[in-house]
Design goal:
The protein has four helices and seven strands, in the order E-E-H-H-E-E-H-E-H-E-E. It is an alpha+beta fold and 161 residues long. The protein has two domains: 1-37, no CATH class; 40-154, 3-Layer(aba) Sandwich (Cytidine Deaminase, domain 2), CATH 3.40.140. The chain is globular and about 50 Å long. The protein starts with a strand and ends in a 7-residue tail after the last strand. This is DNA repair protein RadC. One of its GO terms (molecular function) is metal ion binding. Residues 39-161 form the MPN domain. Keywords: Hydrolase, Metal-binding, Metalloprotease, Protease, Zinc.
């Protein structure tokens, strides 16, 4: 039982599917679309993918889209998992991952299980702290997207970076 994709790109549903199965298939579709773009010219290009990946979670997760100097996607990585109202983000681990991927830029994303995607003071503080650390190794933060089930808020669009 499951949802499979044939060589022509058609999805085949085999039997009854759970909500989790459908969400996993939707995330796969959006990831493939994002990868087909090849690069992220505008960080909002990744918002649908990130909302699908993070929006329905009952706990916080912190993800990073690592990019090269032409904003081509190197990797999408979950770095931290938290609780219903927070996740501990460790700058040392973010910097280690940036170096591992040889990244030149990144887009941060995390979810708010509360359903309110408004960036908090803690969100602004960790973004600044990460930016200060990444600056030393030449990695730019293009955006930090806060995701809820219903919306994504770009900190770059709000002038918070």
């Amino acid at each position: 039982m499951g949802i499979t994709r044939d060589v022509l790109g058609h999805y085949i549903v085999d039997g009854p599917q759970t909500e989790s199965d459908i969400l996993e298939a939707a995330e796969d579709i959006l990831r493939r679309r994002l990868e087909r773009l090849g690069s992220v010219g505008n960080p909002r290009n990744s918002a649908d993918f990130l909302r699908m990946r993070l929006g329905a979670l009952k706990h916080e997760e912190f993800h990073v889209v690592w990019l090269d100097n032409r904003h081509r996607i190197l990797a999408v990585e979950k770095l931290f998992r938290g609780t219903i109202d927070g996740a501990s983000v460790h700058p040392r681990e973010v910097i280690r991952s940036a170096l591992q991927h040889n990244a030149a830029a990144c887009i941060f994303a995390h979810n708010h299980p509360s359903g309110v995607a408004e960036p908090s003071a803690a969100d602004r503080a960790i973004t600044k702290e990460l930016g200060d650390g990444l600056q030393h190794i030449g990695v730019r933060i293009l955006d930090h997207i806060v995701v809820s089930a219903g919306e994504c808020v770009s900190m770059a669009a709000r002038g918070l970076l």
